[in-house]
Amino acid sequence: MAYTYRNYAPNEGLEEIQARIFNQANVPRNVTAEEIQERFETEKIDPKTVIYAFDEKNEPVAYVQARDYPGRKEVHLGYPWSLPNCPIDVQKKMYGDLLTYLKARDSELNIRSNMQNIPEFTAFVKKQGFIEDGKVIRFEVNLNSIAKAKANFTDLPYTLRKATMDDYNAVKVAYFKALGDLARQENENFNTFVKQCLESGFMHLAMHNETIVGACTNTVPDAENIALDNQNVGLQFFFTLIGEEKAIPMLMRNAIEIAVREQWNRDTIRIGFTDENAQEMDVITKIAKDQEVVQYQFKLL
After folding, report:
1. Is 272 within 8 Å of 129 (Cβ atoms)?
2. pTM higher than 0.70 for the full model?
3. Which of 35, 44, 65, 150 could crosslink 227 through cysteines, CB 3.0-4.6 Å?
4. Between the CA of residue 263 and those of 104, 201, 205, 225, what are the distances in Å?
5. In b/e form, how buried is each residue of 190-222, taking b as 16+ CB within 10 angstroms?
6. Hey, how many other C-beta atoms are within 10 angstroms of the C-beta on 164?
7. Range of the domain at 239
8. pLDDT per residue as tens digits for the range 178-204
């Protein structure tokens, strides 16, 4: 069967196609065409960074997208989502063609790729010159199961308080102490990220007396997050010190209460952790976990 390929163009119904393919490949997601269109317009995307595949009847079967992150000096090449009837060779061609374009365009962005745990495709990605650079574990937890669960934190030696910009340096020190890496404290991108978390007003700290032992920041849902990941409620900058794991459920409960109060929640909370968050992942697996998705991170040599 012959397949044809098209780049993104506005007002041609391609957002509807992209939403339908993504939702069918990621049940029970519910990304809308309007959310995708809003994100594309906001980011002023390069149309050539999105490719759609059609069969000989002009029926859409797959799409692949790369997303520019100028602030990080990175571009992320995504997984080619497809319908069940799409051959994997079509997915590989789309991915390979978009990678060729990213290499050829005049850009200082480093190419990265995040992949689902699909052995045949991760093997293909490695053949394109990528090497594995860690992995992200995404948990999906039912909000109601946690919100209604009985939890008594009165016996814990911790208190929670809202973080302010005055906590900037102390938060950084605690974070790198938790990860065992103090050398990266002056990383400009990380410093900007911490400031953004503090400025959002949603970072909360777990305190043991006057010492920061953990922190958690809600990611405010917007059209960009929802269109990209169908993220109902997200958590970012979530850490605890070694030995202070009991603060994790306390921070999570607080984050969920914020989500409920702000009316952000739908059905689930999605939480992503890298390899560095081993202790957080260990605790989360014991807290009403409904689904675990492993996503591998690759960087181009």
Report:
1. no
2. no
3. 35
4. 44, 16, 22, 16
5. eeebbeebbeeebbbbbbeeeebbbbbbbbebe
6. 12
7. 139-294
8. 876 665 567 777 788 888 889 888 899
Say what the pLDDT of residue 31 is.
81
Q: What is the CA radius of gyration of the chain?
A: 21
For the stretch 24-83, pLDDT in tens is 887 666 788 998 998 899 888 999 999 999 999 999 999 999 998 887 788 999 889 999
Which residue has tokens 């200082």?
A: 108
Amino acid at 256: I
Least Cα distance to 250 among 282, 222, 214, 202 occurs for 214
CATH number at residue 286: 3.40.630.30
**Closest C-alpha to 79, from 94, 59, 101, 97:** 94
Provide the token pair at 4.
């044809």
284 and 158 share one domain: yes
Q: What is the number of domains present in the chain?
A: 2
Whole-angstrom distance, CA of residue 267 vs CA of residue 135: 25
The answer on 272 and 189 residing in a single domain is: yes
